[in-house]
């Protein structure tokens, strides 16, 4: 929905999970963001001998309808174009280096599902985390902006888990990008650095008042728009719920922008940030809670 359509339907923002929308979604049911986050999460819980390949296999399970709540063989109808292309290539090659939708396709479809790497590897060597975040992104999204956005996001989450302040954590993302500057012709790392900087400058409350956050593509699916919005939510001083509701009030790719911002807010404030009425409705909440406990106990 556009900003105007969201404002007309919910003048004060939508603060309960009600379902419906353009796809008539059941309340609390996962969309592709959460489904594919789960695909990556399952790989970290049982990596086998090749973590990245296992993550890709779970993504194919989702693609093929081998997934909780879905009719076997049915295609997800909220699948993105790059995800379709990337997974089709991955099905043929089973190799992330020979998958992906190619450079120039810079959607937010890998950023929305990259948080498990940070949760599972909070104390690992940053180079190992970066390698995993890169490869898991590249299964579908191998454009340098997508890959580097995932690396930066992972470092931001790790910094938050270590107790750093929101601005310090954003700084960890910037530092990670400075180390990667210039390694690809388009300099995806420099572009991600700019997006984090843009996010630090966005006042989310004011953006909602004006119906404009000044994003390059209006928050309609471009990876760096979604990253900037998530950083804006992270450094917003208000309670997490207010920030997250405002991210979705801006319209555009609301489920994905919300998922990406929600990941940072959850890492910042913990599960107690979210209303019980939300948590009780979420399709995979019990499974995700158990996974979080597993990672917290193992300490990465
Ligand atoms: Mg979406």
Automatic annotation (TrEMBL):
Keyword rRNA processing attributed: no
Keyword Zinc found: no
Keywords: Hydrolase
Gene3D superfamilies, A to Z: ADP-ribosylation/Crystallin J1 (1.10.4080.10)
InterPro entries, A to Z: ADP-ribosylglycohydrolase, Ribosyl_crysJ1, Ribosyl_crysJ1_sf
Source domain of life: Bacteria
PANTHER family xref list: ADP-RIBOSYLGLYCOHYDROLASE, ADP-RIBOSYLHYDROLASE ARH3
Family listed: Belongs to the ADP-ribosylglycohydrolase family.
Protein name: ADP-ribosylglycohydrolase family protein
Organism: Kineosporia mesophila
